[in-house]
Design a protein that fits this description.
269 residues; alpha+beta
Length: 269
């Protein structure tokens, strides 16, 4: 087919005219801020009050871009207690020039001290200025969005159910058993019980003495009835003849030679 001269130019101008007639979707940044997703990863914010200096975030960071310094502080002992030591956070810094925004530090934090903030306007002219200390990280904590609403019909969070759970009742020790006769029992009944108890103890002691005396010097124990009349069970043939277990030809070869050597010199002698 013959190509019309200027066909490609006409198609390009048609595309240009079609876009010129449509409304522009350009956002005038920085005057107009973009609408970011709810779970966007902008910057890591720190809540200093929740940090216990457990060092989990620094150990799990694959880029080693978290730097933490702390010291121990001894709290005064309460009445009837002992003094306790706690860690006080001195420095918490993140080098965002090394951070790859994997979020491992936020996931492993057991005390909810690190959060994602949608803020992303922290660019610097010098790469060395991307090392932000805890003061700057604490300012970003105010920009952390609240968690999403709970789904309708889902189970309530464990934190709320644990907080509303009633305290368990304290277990009381069972009453101690009352020793001795019941209240109001006559004296004759008490004496009869004591006499019966003494007779029982004397009978037990006498029987134990007879058994001890009859042990070594007494008559031999009678054999169990039916033990001799029971036929003796012979072991299986495989246990009587060990050669029946081995296949033919598996005996050691030096058995015959050793027998010949043993018989030879003795016969000569």
């Amino acid at each position: 087919m013959a190509r019309i001269p200027g066909e490609g130019l006409a198609k390009g101008l048609a595309v240009t005219m079609r876009h010129m007639l449509h409304k522009s979707e350009t956002q005038q940044y920085p005057e107009v801020h973009p609408d970011l997703p709810a779970r966007s990863r902008g910057v890591i914010a720190l809540v200093e009050e929740n940090c216990t200096v457990c060092m989990l975030c620094a150990r799990e960071c694959p880029d080693w871009c978290i730097y933490i310094d702390s010291h121990k502080e001894t709290l005064p002992a309460p009445e009837g207690g002992r003094p306790r030591a706690r860690n006080v956070l001195d420095r918490f810094a993140i080098d965002f020039s090394l951070c790859m925004y994997c979020g491992i530090c936020i996931e492993v934090c057991p005390f909810d001290a690190l959060f994602w903030s949608p803020e992303f306007e922290y660019a610097e002219y010098d790469i060395r200025d991307l090392l932000h200390e805890k003061d700057r990280l604490g300012e970003w904590a105010a920009t952390v969005p609240p968690p999403p609403a709970h789904e309708v019909g889902a189970e309530p969070p464990k934190e709320l159910s644990a907080g509303s759970r009633p305290a368990p009742a304290r277990r009381t020790a069972p009453p101690a058993p009352v020793k001795g006769p019941a209240a109001g029992a006559p004296a004759a009944q008490e004496s009869a019980q004591d006499t019966a108890a003494q007779d029982t103890v004397q009978e037990a002691v006498g029987k134990a003495t007879q058994d001890t005396a009859r042990g070594p010097a007494g008559p031999a124990a009678e054999p169990a009835k039916g033990a001799e009349s029971r036929p003796r069970r012979e072991p299986p043939r495989a246990m009587r003849d060990i050669r029946s277990i081995r296949p033919p030809g598996s005996l050691p070869k030096n058995a015959g030679s050793s027998q010949q050597k043993k018989d030879g010199p003795e016969g000569e002698r």
